[in-house]
Amino acid sequence: MISERSCGAEDIGSHLSRLLSFFSRENIEPEDVDDEAFLAFHDALKRGSIEEKPDVLFRGIVRLWNEAARTTKGWPPPTNVPTLDGRRSVVPAESFPASFRADVEACLFQAGELDPFAKDYFRPLRAATVKSMRQQLYFGARTLVASGFPIARITSVSVVVDVTHAETILRRMRQEKGDTPSLGGLAGTLSSVAARWVKPAEADTERLRDFARRLAVKQKGMTAKNRARLEQFDNPANVRALFNLPERVRSQAERKHDGTNREAVRMAMALAVEILIVAPMRMANLAGLRLDKHIKIVRHGRQDIIHINIPAGETKTSAPIDLTLPAESANLLAKFVQTYRPRIAGGEGPYLFPGRGGARRAETKFSSAISTFILRETGLLFNPHLFRHLAAKLHLAAHPEDIESVRQLLGHTTTKVTLNAYAAPNTKPAFAKWDRTVAAIRGGSIPAARDLSRGARNGDST
Fold it and tell me: Most buried in the list 169, 257, 364, 454, measured by CB within 10 Å?
């Protein structure tokens, strides 16, 4: 039997004892541990455990098991069993068959590099769209695995876009998330990939198109969740707390300079917030900022003049980002690069915000780190993408007619996109004006309706 002591499990967490005890009770030998054994344990957890969140516990135990497999000599191999997190099955991309991964890349290369003289020519997709398609194809594959389909049989893109499998994927996602824009986007990707790459029978192609049409959700304006998050900035104190955060952190770091990595990371978060305030870009562009490509530092006397230029081909909307940082922002960036950044990356890598070993930081984890930093420092529940919405909110509050500046600031292709997102629906200004009208009527400075009608009956035309 597998025992904690024989495998050294005391060094990797007591939670594993539940798994090992289960294997012992079921007479599962080390060489017999496979994905089916883990699925049996998961089923036992859900049926007989008093845990409120057995899926969360199972996910942690699988993580511990795989960590032990990597670090403990003699431990059985890691498992690729899917661990549901309520949204998708967490299966690493490398767990899928090599043929599937190669087919995904070949499909995406074709989507971005089509020959304009080819008979079956499609307009090439933008780099950001290709990236999104990759994420959606893997999401679809993971969802298919979560439905019980063997991962070993996902050998090509055609398996995922097969009309029966696509329906399974979309039904499961709809059950979990409801009718959302992301569901419609996934349906559109499956349909597009089938038409461009797999080219199934016309009846199947049309069926996939029907899925895409029926599930399409046109999001007009911000989501209710984002609007609710922005309401906290109706309080000017919260606006000041967020906008003054970078300078406050810089001042604290300079007063209590201790040379630690923790201090350097805090300064990195402060600089990230500063850049998002003055240049509200998407996380892909923030994480991808390179000192050797996008940032130019020019020394002018005692002042650093810093330009940020991101080419059109690297932005979601194909609109370039080109700006000169304000003096305060430029000083913060220069100070970070000179003093704090070397502690994070050891001087390695080209990225302004380097990850481990100087590599590019993962966008999701970087975004989460910024959100956690803002919450810890200010108490505000806020994520990096909301900086774009906040910029529009505050600029339009100060300059209600200047929608064009917001359009250019956010890189929207048309004014209609900006108006849909930020000009409607917003009934607060109308209600505020009505409140002033009510107050004026009550105060007597504006006649009430009956006074006006009485004047009309008496022949008063004024």
Answer: 169
Q: CA Rg, the chain, in Å?
A: 28
Would you say residue 409 has pLDDT above 80? yes
Please name the residues in contact with 120: beta carbons below 8 A apart, sequence gap of 6 or more.
Answer: none
Burial of 168-201, coded b for 16+ CB within 10 Å and e otherwise, reads bbbebbeeeeeebeebbbbbbbbbbbbbbbbebe
d(CA 124, CA 103): 18
Alpha helices in 325-448 (DSSP H): 327-335, 341-345, 363-378, 386-398, 403-410, 415-422, 428-443
Q: What are phi and psi of 351, to 5 degrees?
A: -80, 140
H or E stretch at 99: helix 98-112
Residue 66 has pLDDT above 90, yes or no: no
Nearest alpha carbon to residue 4 among 57, 59, 72, 60: 72
Q: pTM for the whole thing?
A: 0.61
What is the share, in percent, of the chain residues with pLDDT greater than 90? 38
